[in-house]
Amino acid sequence: MPLQVTVWNENVHELEEPEVAERYPDGIHGAIADAVDGDDRTVRTATLQEPEHGLTEDVLANTDVLLWWSHCANDEVADEVADRVVDRVHEGMGFVPVHSGKNSKPFKRLMGTTCNIKYRHGGETERIWTADPGHPIADGLEESFEVPSTEMYGEPFDIPEPDRTVFISWFEGGEVFRSGVCYRRGRGRIFAFRPGHEEYPIFFQDEIRTVLDNAVAWAAPTEGADAVWGEVEPKESLDD
Amino acid sequence: MPLQVTVWNENVHELEEPEVAERYPDGIHGAIADAVDGDDRTVRTATLQEPEHGLTEDVLANTDVLLWWSHCANDEVADEVADRVVDRVHEGMGFVPVHSGKNSKPFKRLMGTTCNIKYRHGGETERIWTADPGHPIADGLEESFEVPSTEMYGEPFDIPEPDRTVFISWFEGGEVFRSGVCYRRGRGRIFAFRPGHEEYPIFFQDEIRTVLDNAVAWAAPTEGADAVWGEVEPKESLDD
Amino acid sequence: MPLQVTVWNENVHELEEPEVAERYPDGIHGAIADAVDGDDRTVRTATLQEPEHGLTEDVLANTDVLLWWSHCANDEVADEVADRVVDRVHEGMGFVPVHSGKNSKPFKRLMGTTCNIKYRHGGETERIWTADPGHPIADGLEESFEVPSTEMYGEPFDIPEPDRTVFISWFEGGEVFRSGVCYRRGRGRIFAFRPGHEEYPIFFQDEIRTVLDNAVAWAAPTEGADAVWGEVEPKESLDD
Amino acid sequence: MPLQVTVWNENVHELEEPEVAERYPDGIHGAIADAVDGDDRTVRTATLQEPEHGLTEDVLANTDVLLWWSHCANDEVADEVADRVVDRVHEGMGFVPVHSGKNSKPFKRLMGTTCNIKYRHGGETERIWTADPGHPIADGLEESFEVPSTEMYGEPFDIPEPDRTVFISWFEGGEVFRSGVCYRRGRGRIFAFRPGHEEYPIFFQDEIRTVLDNAVAWAAPTEGADAVWGEVEPKESLDD
User: Fold this and answer.
1) Contact B118 A229 (CB under 8 A)
2) Which segments constitute the ThuA-like domain (chains A, B, C, D) (predicted)?
3) C173 in A contact zone (CB under 8 Å)
4) Would you list the domain boundaries of chain D?
5) Using the beta-carbon criterion (under 8 Å), do D155 and A131 form an inter-chain contact?
6) For residue B8, what are the contacts with CB-CB under 8 A and spacing of at least 6?
7) What ipTM did this prediction achieve?
8) Residues D112-168 pLDDT 10s
9) Do B156 and C169 touch (CB under 8 A)?
10) How many cross-chain Cβ pairs, B to C, lie less than 8 Å apart?
């Protein structure tokens, strides 16, 4: 059965700002969906404006990996939907928050920290270094690549110490940032990826698309073992 | 200035079950408070029944380390108070959930997982092994010690991979459990300690008291560095 | 191209103890090789007695995953061969030390710790719990399984805090042990698995074979990114 | 009893290059020793040229924290002395390799990786960001500070994923580096700190001295629990 991928986007900039709509005629979700499509994958999109933001029980039950782009509307996501995403991650769904998806309710609930950063608009060069060249999310990349114009995110990034730090960014204005970090929560794999501001055509850049494509493969659920929770009988005799 | 320690207890079993009240005449909070008291420490207690559960803004602002015992009333803790505890941990307050405090709202919000376990009542032997003999929370312990009669908790314990696994328990009935695990979230140190059922006089046992006392010292806030979040000016010229 | 698997065994007990030779007529390496064989895999074996212990430059250059069983002859492994194994792990070869392979030169050099344990011969029940049910090395297992008669290993196990703790063992005699632990060193994935004493037919047990088979799949090399080391030119102008 | 600190330096540049001798009239070891001196500490120095490099059994047995600066003479350190340092770290001695001390035999043996980096001479600005503002090694620092002229080290840094990443550096020439990383091996705490080239007066800079001073406090041994290794009797009856 093909891997079932859902790309979620708040889709607000596209609806409200003509330049963004022109830059991303199919929405940022459309560009990401195109980047992660492939053999043995079915990719669909969902947006904030749909009923239940397009993330119904049924959609999530049939999603193996969820990519998530959000920015200005993080607070408009219903708590119930955010919790539903979190629950599905615990069950094994992969979760790939992109750019300020790091401020989304699901990511913050999965991390248990503020996820605070510093930032700067205006456009500057970002050079993304692979700190973990053995990681499959870096498959096929050179040692570094540049995003020619982007919003800056700077450390400290208030997250739990990552399981793996795959990418670290250098910014022209003098900051650094852990741009690709991996976690597991329950059975679900999480990869938070920094790049992706709506003001730039970042999701059409080859290396960015490669990373997102790799991240989907990495975050796919695996079978694992049984887990039994709740009240249980002893395995050994307690008679004595 | 002395370290300011607050011991929180839901205090429900003590109020509702005469055997528990007899076993812990000053409440479980009283027994824990006595265990962690010492030079250069001021220890106070707070319970569910007090206004704001005794964890007002003022109390938390003046708490360096919060110990937390809860069991049957985890759901009765107000969301607002739980969030206040989480915020203070992010700021640096140490947090030591004990026994089913692992099911408390603050701990689950800090972990981002279900914190599910298996369990069994009835009383059986637990042998607590120090897996990390170099850890300061194990100061002064032998390689293992026994709790003669306790409730069982068994793996899998649905938590993020710990920063350090200090203790692992063996149970007579055949299970194992990571009984002492360390995390940091924001500036705050967290140590979750398994033992402590209300049906047994566990908080009067020397080794248990040693661990709690050590945990308070370990979880105490440290100064750290400045952190600047939000919009910032560049450190380097972006003129070109 | 099929995954190239090499199973290394010191093969000393088999040569010196008739009961072991009878129990493992093809050697422990033969039993492990049979367990991890499969479609898209070529499996070969190598032993201490061969020139360069059967781990020549050529063999290792053509090994994707190396399983390693050793016990009484850990010190007889040539330093040069041990270093060759370590170098190949850094390059990406998976490494699966089994049982007292945890005392082998390659594993200790990769860990940087003593890897000390406590132990007991004589035969007793071990119950292996899956602490990380979402991990692919646990694929297809129940929540726990028993090895009916084994040598005991007990905590503290002097290893770096694992990246993931997949299995924790309960022993009839009262000890616990982290029986399946994951690391990465360089590009190479490492999974140390505890069971497997030569006095028992452990490598014919289904669950053990499942774990070893899963471990080979998990430890297989991935492509990753380029890494450039040594002296480099600046990416940015340093003229000013 | 005061904390016993030993500062080790290969002391080769000072002996062979007049500019370095002029810059560090008491040697780099002298400058570091001055930085970490204080109440309740006794600080001594040792160098490569002394018998057993000044790191005799007796000196190490009486060292709580060892700082280590080395560069061009890493290969000249006797294997026996390197192993002695590693053994003492396992027993609890803190170890703080500075600058290319990351290439020293003890550090590489403790890490189990190549510790490879990229580098560039010539002098450029380094800005050191605190990625973990809650860490005690960052006590008293601002969010970032600059070393005005330094040798560059760049990612990928081939180390195990750190327990904590305290500092990340930005370099004028376009690279990034994890400049302050924490580990534990056995009972010993390890903090590797990047800055410190002999061509610049870096060890006279206030922030650098603060970090080294904090690192000594952080790396100091703690008591911990007993650990029993080797063959043991069962804790439970195995009669049945």
Assistant:
1) yes
2) 5-219
3) no
4) 3-112+179-219
5) yes
6) B29, B45, B46, B47, B53, B54, B55, B66, B67, B68, B69, B70
7) 0.96
8) 999 999 999 999 999 999 999 999 999 999 999 999 999 999 999 999 999 999 999
9) no
10) 64
